[in-house]
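Q: I'm a student working through a structural biology exercise. My instructor gave each of us a protein and asked us to get a predicted structure, then write a short paragraph describing it. Mine is FAD-dependent monooxygenase. I'm not confident about reading structure output yet, so if you can add a plain explanation after the tokens, that would really help. Here is the sequence I was given:
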Amino acid sequence: MATGKTQQDLDFDVLVVGGGPVGMLLAAELRISRVRAVVLERLPERTPHSKAFGLHARSLESLDRRGLVDRFRDGARSWNNGHFAGLDEWVDFSALDSAHAYALLSEQTRTERLLEERAAEVGTEIRRGHEVTAIRQDADGVEADVTGPDGAYTLRAGYVVGCDGGRSLVRREAGIVFPGTGGRVTARLGDVILADRENAPMGMERTERGLLFCVPLDDTYHRVSTFDFQAEREPGADLTLDELTASLREIWGSDLGARDPRWLSVFTDSACQAERYREGRILLAGDAAHTHFPVGGQGVNLGLQDAFNLGWKLAAAVHGWAPEGLLDSYDGERQAPARKVLANTRAQIALMNPDPYVTPLRELFTDLMRRDQVNRYLAEMLSGVTVRYGIDGPAHPMLGDFARDLELRTEDGVRTLPGYLKRGTGVLLDLTGRPEIAQVYEKWGAGVSWAGRVRHVRAACAAEPELSGLLVRPDGYVAWAADRELPEAELRESLGTALSTWFGTV
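A: Happy to help. First, here is the predicted structure for FAD-dependent monooxygenase. I'll explain a few features afterward.
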């Protein structure tokens, strides 16, 4: 259906469909880059229930680079250990090389609330109770049919991003295939009162009939989850308390007096990933792009990293300075991390299988986890700190990696690198005062200036005495790095190429 609107009189630049944590963060990232974004969320109110509970190191590092980490830490508990496949040996997050070497207890509903507050602070329009029912795109934009409290209407925007979950309408409307593996494990979850809480286990327990996960949520309620490896459950039907208690008796031998549920849910170990994250002007992020079994606390964190990666690139496309291939690099960079998460969650499910034949493998794996190198490998994998993007440029150990919290001495005093990324722009660190760095930044090639897209910072860094310069993308990843011995001509060429590759030539 044509609206007669041109690209100059769009209703919004970007429609974000889905108001969960990923959608709210993405909208906030777009707004700090002066993009007109609206969040369309079908639920009239934020759900009070949370499948996800934790934020890992890479998410906390990224939030720190927007000046947000303190509001997430305020009043929240953190812990240094986490489980892998419910094994007896725990993963030690304190071994991570990170300023946030821990996991933070932040229920999904709390994370969503804090990110919604952030989105509102920076001027995002949030429409709750507005459900997108159809999407069409053409060469100049996207139209969405929406049903709201006051009736149906149509919006036109330059782009739409589906953050609308595993059953994403946006993904279906875009015709993007969602291949994967079907569910063979049935998980039944209940937030319930346990009359027999004294005999309730703490954490995950494995029996020959399945697994039980049980933790207190507060002084009254427990989160109880049973994992049934024997019988597949027909999808679609709601979980009942009777079904949950029957599963408890089957797996644990007692229903622990479970009663008064405030939330019941059922899910499986199905794992799927979108064949691509972009179809023209339609993009996907979070669970709309990838779903997996919620073990290891990785799902929300994976989606938040999608938002950090996509936000500044989509803003560049909206403002017209995105170099060729920049928006496509979102798909190119975020597919691999999702594949790895799907693989490790499948591996954990295999280790959790109650079949006695799996027990020797669990014992072997537990023994391996007592070795520091193995334990650290798993900690890095679960927390996402090993994500590194394949970025072209002069060979350097920092290239493509997440920029560390470097302490910088400037004219204004001592500051850290995260403080320069709060506005969502890139940062060019000039650490030796080589004049060619400033010259390339100010004018290179056809005379393009990157002011406003990249902040040029002159500083000294005692921790990296050999480092001459560093170009950090808005999402915190290193796009260019050079040591002192890099010849002038090579520095000029490589820095100019990096700036134009990531920050445009117009």
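A: Here are two points you could use in your paragraph. The chain has a mean pLDDT of 92. The CA atoms of residues 22 and 304 lie 5 Å apart. It's a good idea to check both against the output above yourself.
Q: Great, thank you!
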